[in-house]
Amino acid sequence: MSKRLTLIKKEELKKKKSIRTMKLLDLCEKHQGTVTADSVNLLENLTEKELLNEICYLRATVAHDIRQMCREKVDGKFKMMRVTSNELKQSTKCRYKPEFNLTNDIDSLLIAIIYA
Q: How many Å apart are CA 75 and CA 109, to the nearest integer?
């Protein structure tokens, strides 16, 4: 009996998650579709609300590690601060195409300067 109840609950949760994902997909389809590795440049044309919808969809499907808030120390206390839209775009680009990762480029440039 308890196994059956847990299976029913799991099915309900999966159904709820799939409904939420489909609603997010519908929101993303309103603005040129979802971002893929081939269409990363679409991020530059999105408004703030469209960008947030896109990131919600990505977090629900493939990119669980994209963060919209970060913890910063302000006046001796830690507070959660919103990440700017440029940082969100950059982290999304890095998720799909690692060549957009600026820190790797800076590291390689520094190594090239040191050993040149």
A: 35
Annotate 16-69 with DSSP letters as a single string.
Answer: HHHHHHHHHHHHHHTTT----STTGGGGGG--HHHHHHHHHHHHHHT-TT--SE
Q: Which two tokens stand for residue 32?
A: 């040129």
Which H or E run contains 86? helix 85-96
Could you give the CA distance from residue 8 to residue 15 in angstroms, rounded to a whole number? 11
Q: Give one word for 32, left, alpha or beta, with left for phi > 0 and alpha for psi -120 to 50.
A: left
State the helix-helix crossing angle for 85-96 and 48-61, rounded to 10 degrees: 40
- If DSSP codes are grouped into helix, strand and coil, which group holds residue 115? coil
The pLDDT of residue 9: 92
Q: Considering the entire predicted model, what is its pTM?
A: 0.63
Q: Are 54 and 46 in contact (CB under 8 A)?
A: yes
- 49 has pLDDT over 80: yes
